[in-house]
């Protein structure tokens, strides 16, 4: 069976993926890691009907397939040891290229942990960061939901096929994530069930595509602790919410802090001080008590309405259009005018923010 590492080795030797299937047995075996058995399988491959079926099913599901070489493939995910070569995505593909922080934790979190997850998700969105998590009950769900409600961007990484939302109770949340300008993604083929072994594999994507991972509440063992270790292995930051001594399903957080495996954080500034990320000028102005430039410019009502909405923070064009009540294509000329007046600027991922 061809693994991701062997596929990458093969692709380094050709100009186009199709060239692999034009190579003969001897040429294939000259490539490190390709033995006679694998070479025979490549030469004799004839399952193109199955490939077409997968692509067709992906479209019918309302998803698309992204490869490792796609321009919208998450930049940071490319840097990990074993990045997925394929990602199924439903929603806004540009969300995968934004700066983000993962928020993870137990499914059985208490109110303290849930409140912490919501607070940090809202604050991260306020400064224009994307919230990444795994769509599970508990901490994951709170983080995703808070990001959506804050008008921010959030990405859910599944441990099942993109056509199998798990848990099923989060189908509405998954739809809300997509509708709000975020994305739901998976490396698992269509029809893949949410088997227990998929989730530790999935977790490397959650940590790998982000600048850091925040553990909001976790027991001593479990997926969140695995994700924290993966983040450290990937040379990413780990942030931890401290909990009162003996708090059920949260002792893992204090353990991470005690062992020096994560930074204790009490507010979003504690996170921002550790990661290299652009904070929107509008948010810096708001934080310092300054006046955004648009308030000193004579704007017509449509332009002013846009600026009032953008005072919430950086927003994707689709989210902004929905809040203003104007279709995106009609909003763009006004945004361009605001950019020329130096009231608004556009960031990566079709996001706009105040200056």
Defining key terms:
355 residues; alpha/beta; 3 domains; three-stranded antiparallel sheet; 14% strand
What do these coordinates show?
This protein has helices at 4-12, 25-29, 36-43, 48-60, 111-126, 139-149, 171-179, 198-208, 223-233, 251-258, 268-272, 281-288, 301-310, 317-324, 328-340, and strands at residues 64-67, 86-91, 100-105, 130-133, 154-157, 183-186, 212-217, 237-240, 263-264, 315-316, 344-347, 351-354. With 355 residues, the chain is an alpha/beta fold. The protein folds into three domains: 4-45, no CATH class; 76-273, Rossmann fold, CATH 3.40.50.450; 293-354, Arc Repressor Mutant, subunit A (Orthogonal Bundle). The strands form two sheets. The protein has a nine-stranded mixed beta sheet with strand order 1-2-6-5-4-3-7-8-9, with helices on both faces. A three-stranded antiparallel beta sheet has the order 10-12-11. A hairpin with a 3-residue loop joins strand 11 (344-347) and strand 12 (351-354). Helix 5 runs parallel beside helix 6 and helix 8 crosses helix 9. The chain starts with a helix and ends with a strand. The model is unreliable at 280-289 (pLDDT under 50).
Describe how the helices and strands are arranged.
Layout lengths: L3 H9 L12 H5 L6 H8 L4 H13 L3 E4 L18 E6 L8 E6 L5 H16 L3 E4 L5 H11 L4 E4 L13 H9 L3 E4 L11 H11 L3 E6 L5 H11 L3 E4 L10 H8 L4 E2 L3 H5 L8 H8 L12 H10 L4 E2 H8 L3 H13 L3 E4 L3 E4 L1
Parallel strand pairs: 3-4, 3-7, 4-5, 5-6, 7-8, 8-9
Antiparallel strand pairs: 1-2, 2-6, 10-12, 11-12
Helix pairs in contact: 5-6, 8-9
